[in-house]
């Protein structure tokens, strides 16, 4: 990361879209990728749910859920090496499958999932923040939580608007706190009196009680790995943009796997998987495993540090969501698929300021509306993100294999990394999407239903259908992109990204 440049200096080394070149190195890119996943928050709210489904084989679910993620990371790496663009999946899918598929899968679905995630992250961060400052009773007030969450969104939006250099610098500190808190928790839990010795059998997938629990657990695990691809959207601001983001993607996913497995082994060793008391199978603990275990594992002030880490994790991911989304819409606008205002760059900060503000406002409005309608509805909205993740990751994996199909005979490396692995990852993701869609159709899945159909299904599949309708409308507004987009995305931007006023 370039430290010597002041944030109020004019952007230097800008490229075709006006973004500040060479702002972030490999370490900064990895930090952005890890922070966008919110590792402390993700493991806290997911490990209990996975354990309820799979018992002591929860680490196996974490490992198996990682496989399609790693294969998809190879697809991202190879496609970014070929077409380094902050639009990432939008550009790649458009190039391979055409403008309509690119607009829906690489554009709409990704941004819709991100806004849904931002509402959850802001809400969780607000609730934990109120607890930490001694306003515990307010954490049970939807109004207080919503107001605090909107203020967090406003602060994160202003920070992201100031520039990727500042965002990456903040992420170092926030990520360091998260990893330190998880390491302290894990070491203390494994060394506690009465803790069971970890067993390799916990990694054995044969311990699942049938395919249904196995598939459900793996799909749950997809959510805790999702988000690392946000670092790819900063590729035009990263040193050696053709290689560094791809390397950072693979590194960040491997670090996530190690962190999650260590935490899962430690938690199971300490608390077990029982359905009472501190057991991870206790539904009362499923919502936040770390909050339930940290006081007895660490006690006192150290437990508060873990709670702070969960709050920080949510806020850090919120910041990275804003960074990634605004750059994706910058690319879409630059190639003529969105209004040109999204492509305008702030003259001093070198950021897509308008797009950043739009996503902050959208998340705040959606959070307010969903909270007003029903807290349960907001919960189902978060669960529907799994469908959207599987959909666009799957399409990206297939796009990689198809794009490089004529090169696969050149070498064993190309065959494996550009063809076999991305194709396998894409097929796994599509299979997960189909299975999850079938499961969520049941009105008993989640907490809401409409007309005998599960609310999670309606939100997930409904958002994809809505995206197709939006693309049909966009075709009328941006006919040039939908006519020439397949070739335009690898040429110069269609619009001229003039600076912000």
What structural category arises from helix and sheet content?
A: mainly alpha
CATH topological fold name: Amino acid/polyamine transporter I
Silhouette:
globular
CATH architecture: Up-down Bundle
Question: Could you give a short account of the major beta sheet?
Answer: 2 strands, antiparallel
Membrane topology: Multi-pass membrane protein
InterPro entries: AA/rel_permease1 (IPR002293), APC_superfamily (IPR050367)
Protein name: APC family permease
Main location: membrane
Task: Give the helix/strand layout.
Layout: H1 26-37, H2 39-54, H3 58-82, H4 89-97, H5 99-132, H6 142-162, H7 164-191, H8 211-225, H9 244-271, H10 283-286, H11 289-297, H12 300-334, H13 353-373, H14 375-383, H15 385-403, H16 412-440, E1 449-450, E2 453-454, H17 455-477, H18 479-488
Antiparallel strand pairs: 1-2
Subcellular location: Cell membrane
InterPro entries: AA/rel_permease1, APC_superfamily
Keywords: Cell membrane, Membrane, Transmembrane, Transmembrane helix
Task: Give an account of the 3D structure.
The protein has 501 residues and is mostly helical. It has a single domain (26-392, 434-488), classed as Amino acid/polyamine transporter I. 69% of the residues lie in helices and 1% in strands. It has 18 helices and two strands. It has helices spanning 26-37, 39-54, 58-82, 89-97, 99-132, 142-162, 164-191, 211-225, 244-271, 283-286, 289-297, 300-334, 353-373, 375-383, 385-403, 412-440, 455-477, 479-488, and strands at residues 449-450, 453-454. It has a two-stranded antiparallel ribbon with strand order 1-2. 59% of the residues are buried.
